[in-house]
Structures are given as structure tokens and as C-alpha cells.
Design the sequence.
């Protein structure tokens, strides 16, 4: 239980019952899962955008065209 007390930010520096530590641990796990879900969605979106940019004419050359396309993509965010 002490390990959870130290890992869960909402439980630090407080006296908590075991039930409350477990409740806050569950909430923290759900928060982390939501963060991971969001990061995975962003990664998929960026991978798709990268595929689209790589399919543009001149993308295989690598030079200024790729940099310009990447800058253009970033400005849309």
C-alpha cells in the first residue's frame, strides 16, 4: 500500500485510508489510460499525415520540398 501512496500524485503528503488510496489509484490509472489513448491517436494521425506527405511528388528527393511540406503541415496544427 505504501508503494501506491508514493506513486499516485493525489495521495502524496496526506494521510489516506486504504480505500481512498485505492480509489485514487483507480482514478489515476484511468487518467493515464486516457493520456495513452490520446497519444496513440495523435501518433496514428501523424503517421497518416506523414504517409500523405511522402506520396506527394518530389517527396522522395528529400530536399527542400520535404521540409516545405513538413512546415506546411505544422502550420495547419
Sequence:
Amino acid at each position: 500500500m505504501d508503494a501506491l501512496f508514493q506513486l499516485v500524485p493525489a495521495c502524496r503528503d496526506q494521510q489516506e485510508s486504504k480505500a481512498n488510496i485505492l480509489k485514487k489509484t483507480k482514478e489515476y490509472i484511468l487518467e493515464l489510460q486516457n493520456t495513452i489513448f490520446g497519444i496513440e491517436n495523435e501518433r496514428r494521425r501523424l503517421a497518416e499525415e506523414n504517409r500523405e506527405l511522402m506520396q506527394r511528388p518530389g517527396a522522395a528527393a528529400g530536399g527542400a520540398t520535404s521540409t516545405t511540406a513538413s512546415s506546411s503541415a505544422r502550420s495547419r496544427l
Q: What stands out?
A: The two ends are 43 Å apart (CA to CA). The CA atoms of residues 50 and 70 lie 9 Å apart. The mean pLDDT is 80. The chain is about 75% helix and 0% strand.
